[in-house]
Amino acid sequence: MKSWNIVGWGLGILLMISIIESQCSSSGSRSESTSSSSYHKSSRPAPREEPPKTFRMGEAFQFGNYLYQVHDISYRESISTGWFDTERPLGVFLVVDITVYNRSGKTQNVSSTLFKLKDNNGNEYKTTHSNFKAYELSPEMEVTGQVVFDVHFGRNYTLLLAEDDDLHFNERKYARVNLGAATADDGMPMNED
After folding, report:
1. Of all residues in the chain, what percent carry a pLDDT higher than 90?
2. pTM of this structure
């Protein structure tokens, strides 16, 4: 009788092992088919997004909540930071004169986070100084100010303007304004990089 119990237990254990193995192998093949079907979905080409348009200085354009117009740029060896204080750049200060118009139906925040600069080498620059200090701009109002960057003289620069004053500056949500490169006519000595 004891030998039959041992044989019964042995057969029961073998049966359980084979059931578990069959379940594991069928779920494995199921996950393989799922992963291969998700691979096919992800291998489809994504819809092409149009690259953002590049605007020229002096050209007014609408983008997101704002109407922008870059009026002029200048290069400076120092800027005033107070009554008697001046600051010198590591390179040269690029000063951008710009107007921002709120075209939305509600008050919008205008600050230096709206602006970024990119050079022809792909380097990105944040604003060094700006008189757009978390300014609350009412609907259908405009503000003109300056944005300052510490840059290398003689490179080509593109100003990046955000769609809104979101602190997470998303590369897909910006307009570009070609600022060009400084020349000797801008009053600064040409430095070779």
Report:
1. 27
2. 0.66
